[in-house]
Amino acid sequence: MGLNRKEYTLFLTPGDAVDVKLFIRRNEVVKFSLNYRAEIKGRWHQVYRVDSYHGFLHEMRYWLSPRPIKLPYMEQYPLSFVFRHFMIEMRLRFRNYRSLYEETDG
Amino acid sequence: MKRRTGECMAKKEMDDERFESMLDFFDKVFRDPEKYPGRAVVLPMRGPEITRAFTPKRLELVELIKRDQPTTAAKLAKVTGRMVEGVLRDLALLKELHIVQHRKEGKEVVLTMKQDFLVIPLVPSLALKELKQKHGEKSEGELNEEAKKDIEAARKQIKGGKGISTKELVEQLGL
What we know:
The complex is a heterodimer.
Chain A: E1 4-13, E2 16-25, E3 28-40, E4 43-51, E5 58-61, E6 69-70, H1 79-105
Antiparallel strand pairs in A: 1-2, 2-3, 3-4, 4-5, 5-6
Chain B: H1 7-11, H2 16-31, E1 39-45, H3 47-53, H4 56-68, E2 71-72, H5 73-80, H6 84-96, E3 101-105, E4 108-112, E5 116-121, H7 126-135, H8 140-157, H9 166-173
Parallel strand pairs in B: 1-5
Antiparallel strand pairs in B: 2-4, 3-4
Helix pairs in contact in B: 4-6, 5-6, 7-8
């Protein structure tokens, strides 16, 4: 049975957005991605991402590199908890992520 | 000039109440994902903001853009029988709310809608409801003041009316 996809966008500020993707099988979320992007000088840039694709939880800190960084310490928790944790983390830290990205990319 | 509509929420950073409502929304999606739409911009809004932002004229514009995209402000003004200036004002708000996107093509502004939108109505928190029950209908600021007085009164009750500092309270509770 294939996966259904849900996609939502929310704006933390007019220039800071989080794209949420949820993959669903038999009415259950089986994987997700959270993608934080920022509008910098009129263009949107991917700054930070966390997802549970490819069978493991990982994050991408684009100001460092697009290489995935594994997050094994979070894998013991239910997916909804992990999702909620990273939503809160993203909201707390997005300004920091943004300035780190601007420093390296700007 | 004072802004008339729900523009304010579109200009600001998402506050705690909106963010909490967003988290609640995603909790519900995780519990029963098939119940929710497939693709949308999520807008947590208070009741009055919803009615101010989504006037019948603006909803008509949204429906027309959805149906006829890509389209222009001039075409929308013609179809709706409205002045272009009025249509542009409404489109500015819809753009601020990230419901419609626009790009310039020569002299024309081309309008599109990449995804639907989903409004999450904010409900007053339980604490706010309790405060209203106790102190009656007052503004949020006044209720905050009442809450501070309640906390002070509770502090005085402890320690035989002498009051207690936050530090002492934390120590007593063993936190």
